[in-house]
Amino acid sequence: MTVSSSVPPIIQGGMGVGISDWRLARAVSLQGQLGVVSGTALDTVLVRRLQDGDAGGHMRRALSAFPMPGVAADVLRLYFRPKGRPPGVPYKMLPVYKQVMSRARQLVTVLAAFVEVYLAKEGHQEMVGLNLLTKVQIPTLPSLYGAMLAGVDVILMGAGIPREIPVVLDRLVQHQAVSLRFEVEGLPSGREDHLILDPKEFWTTPPDLRRPLFFAIIASNSLATMLARKADGRIDGFVIEGPTAGGHNAPPRGEPRFNERGEPLYGERDVVDLTKMSELGLPFWLAGGAGRRGRLHEALAAGASGIQVGTLFAYCDESGLAENLKRSVLEHAARGEVTVMTDPRASPTGYPFKVVRWPGAPGDDVTRERLCDLGGLRAAYYTAEGKIGYRCPAEPVTAYVKKGGKVEDAVGRRCLCNALTADIGLGQVRANGKAEPPLVTSGDDLESIGEFLAGRTRYSAADVVDYLLS
Ligand SMILES: Cc1cc2nc3c(=O)[nH]c(=O)nc-3n(C[C@H](O)[C@H](O)[C@H](O)COP(=O)(O)O)c2cc1C
């Protein structure tokens, strides 16, 4: 069976943090399409759900299926609160990622990816994918291994150049040690640093695994061609993501230009040539504004194997987005009262990031504190003492500058780690009793979601699939 005949025509995009959770991915997979869980910050999501009492017992059910003895019990002992957190009590944090993590810390990440994929796959035989951001390097290897232990079918990675991942999957399937080149700013030439994972440190008799398919998410022909020809190992397909897609976008090519709202302008050079894509001989799915009636048909006619859709799924009943945000955004969107802004500064990654604004939205600009305590988007840098340090342009400016960061790089940055965990109702409570404000992201098509809603105020993942197939 070829890849394009085994992978369904609709891919539900991975949406972090926790918007594409196991419930959404499972619901989409049960419709015979590809449900995808977001792998971003899953370890924090797991330990916060446990601290909130694990309503329904889903985390504990999946933990009890984890094949390495003792690991789940340790996490339960440290984080599970049967009665949940008393009001105003902050979440207990996991140690922040570093290049070298303790075995126990790596295993929390392995476990968290296992849990999410296990639940998404529970009780059916359909395919389930895992989405990871290439740029968030440190948790990648343990996340891949955990997802593979739960039988993940497809790995999808964008936001960077995931060139080394295919061979990592080939090795992990044999439980062999793997490494990734670790990006460290200011590293002296000739020196390389690595992230390493060796499954043999975890156990002596691991189970048989299956290698998942690997899809790279790209926004240009040149990157697709480079990956198809030069990746280490086999790429199985591509998702081509255009600049209207929710979440992070690839920056425009060439000299940066902006419109009057300060949004980056995209042009002809940013359009991916689908004829050239077809020449690579690998299947591809089209993402960004594909969540409209007729788009699937158009994509197939243009040589694609299907579409990847995020925004429509982000607001369906099964998604992880907090209920109050879902209701408020949909209510305003139905009346044409939301705007989606492509903010070139908000994300610490430096990539443009889509931000949803609507009347009555929580005041992100006013109330958000500059800080970095989750560390998911920190960049590693080489210090004057020859060590590796970490900095995030969303942390307090003085701290950032002290670590060699430039003031101009810190302007306008938001702590997306905290904002996005707040979006799914798992936001941290600060010492002053205030909760982290959310910051919602969606694709440009959110502005016209009224057309799809057709008077409804809520809908299911199955409704989205029916609409896309219609
Ligand atoms: C709320 C939200 C979060 C997203 N987070 C991610 C992510 O973590 N990783 C990723 O590769 N893509 C992410 N995306 C992009 C989607 O996977 C998908 O490609 C995109 O939404 C498709 O375009 P559409 O929004 O027009 O449907 C996100 C999109 C949304 C709406």
Quick recap of the structure?
The protein has 470 residues and is α/β, with parallel strands linked by helices.
What does this structure look like?
With 470 residues, the chain is an alpha/beta fold. The chain has one domain (3-320, 457-469): TIM Barrel (Alpha-Beta Barrel). It has 19 helices and 15 strands. The protein has helices at residues 3-6, 22-30, 42-51, 58-64, 71-79, 103-121, 140-149, 165-172, 221-230, 274-279, 295-301, 311-314, 323-334, 364-367, 397-402, 407-410, 416-423, 450-453, 461-469; strands at 10-12, 35-38, 128-133, 154-158, 178-182, 184-185, 193-197, 213-218, 237-241, 284-287, 306-309, 339-343, 353-357, 379-382, 388-391. The strands form four sheets. An eight-stranded parallel sheet has the order 1-11-10-9-8-4-3-2. It has a three-stranded mixed sheet with strand order 6-14-15, with no helix packed on it. Helix 2 runs parallel beside helix 6 (103-121). The longest helix is centred in the first third of the chain and has 19 residues, at 103-121. The structure holds flavin mononucleotide. Flavin mononucleotide binds at residues 13-16, 19, 38, 40, 131, 133, 158-159, 217, 241, 244-247, 287-291, 308-311, 314, 441-443, 445.
